[in-house]
Amino acid sequence: MTAPEQRIEQARQELASKGFYVEPTTAAIYAGFLEYLSGSAQSSVQLEQEINQTFILSLCGADIKAS
Q: Are residues 64 and 32 in contact, defined by beta-carbon separation less than 8 angstroms?
């Protein structure tokens, strides 16, 4: 799975807005997850079912390294 560089930065900013300050390499995990969700769902009903599942994403690293 891949995520474009621009999507990684968007994911980092989205996580920051939720109080998770992570470095870009960690934001890539979240960006990849979002790519997975958008690619795995073939309908809005299926996407809603995917979102209602429990997922665990490793968010390690401090944003201070990326500043």
A: no
- Gap between the Cα atoms of 51 and 45, Å rounded: 10
Average pLDDT value for residue range 24-36: 89
Q: For 32, left (φ over 0), alpha (ψ -120 to 50), or beta?
A: alpha
DSSP assignment of the chain equals ----HHHHHHHHHHHHHTT----HHHHHHHHHHHHHHHHH-SSHHHHHHHHTS-------S-GGGT-
Q: Is the pLDDT of residue 5 over 80?
A: yes
